[in-house]
Amino acid sequence: MHKGLRSPVRSQNMRQVVESRVRANGVELALFDWPASGPTVFFSHATGFHARCWDQVIERLPALHCVAIDMRGHGRSEKPAPPYAWRNFAVDVVEVARSIGLDGALAVGHSKGGYAVTLAAAIEPGLFGKLLLVDPVILPPSAYLTIREGEHFAAKRRNRWSSPDEMYERFASRPPFSGWDPAVLRDYCQYGLLPAPDGDGFVLACPPEIEAATYAASGGEAIYDQIANVRIPVRILRARPRTDLAQTDMSSSPTAPDLASHFADAEDFLLPEQSHFMPMEAPGLIAQHILEMTRAAPAAK
């Protein structure tokens, strides 16, 4: 094991997690599985993040069978060259969910991950029985008509680090990371780096050019026609609203304020005290919503 990295098969509190690889939609994807006898919950992360950012949520769900994916280009999954059309993330989710036999699981998606599980639920009904969308990047319809020009700032992110500890120390006092649960920030750094190919330190597990390409594609495909076909219960958690003067504020909500009205069966929770990074700030809050949804009676068919 490379110096500075924890074991890839155990989380901080030593709940057993099994790492595997699944071939889906033309790429090899990393999958993490926390076995348990309870209902299954499938986790889909945001742009620039990785599956292990969910560790602190999952630690609060000891009775639930939890599965988390590293999306293409992220974490320990394969990293094809850009472009990064968002539909591919949804197809990846569908093919992974099929391969592991999901049937009626609760899907939890944050940011881009929320978009991915929503479109996946529309592509193949039955994989998921409910959706928890955590500030999903499903924009107002008018935003999909906007042409985004220029290079995204993520392309200039620092890529090389001497260790996860260096990354943690640099980020811990800087917004938005300073508002995160410290254990989540530790997981983000610990599992968000890979040994550099040249052997000199570490590099980001989501390369800056891939993160930038993913952000650049966020306005590329509206999915409102598909949303109308999602018939399962949906819960949407929205962070503080984004103002017209803060379109580049990554901590406020990109979610269409009326998104719930486009689903057949959705409830909306506005959480103005939370930022877009609410799973990182308040893993206990996200865990509580998951527990509420897994304990609720299934919808009548």
Keywords for this structure?
301 residues; Rossmann fold; three-stranded antiparallel β-sheet; 11 strands
Explain this structure.
The structure is a single chain. The protein is α/β, with parallel strands linked by helices and 301 residues long. It has one domain (18-153, 210-295): Alpha/Beta hydrolase fold, catalytic domain (Rossmann fold), CATH 3.40.50.1820. Helices cover 26% and strands 19% of the residues. The chain contains nine helices and eleven strands. The strands form two sheets. The chain has an eight-stranded mixed β-sheet, with helices on both faces. It has a three-stranded antiparallel β-sheet with strand order 7-9-8. Helix 2 packs across helix 3. The longest helix has 14 residues, at 86-99. Mean pLDDT is 91; it is low at 1-12.
Using the coordinates above, name the CATH class: Alpha Beta
CATH architecture: 3-Layer(aba) Sandwich
Strand order of the largest sheet: 1-2-4-3-5-6-10-11
Our count of helices gives: 9
Say how many strands there are.
Answer: 11
Rounded to the nearest angstrom, the distance between the terminal CA atoms is 49 Å
Please give the share of residues in helix: 25-40%
CATH topology: Rossmann fold
In terms of structural class, how would the helical and strand content be classed?
A: alpha/beta
* Shape assignment: globular
Range of strand content:
15-25%
H-E string = EEEHEHEHEEHHEEHHEEHH
Q: Tell me about the largest β-sheet.
A: 8 strands, mixed
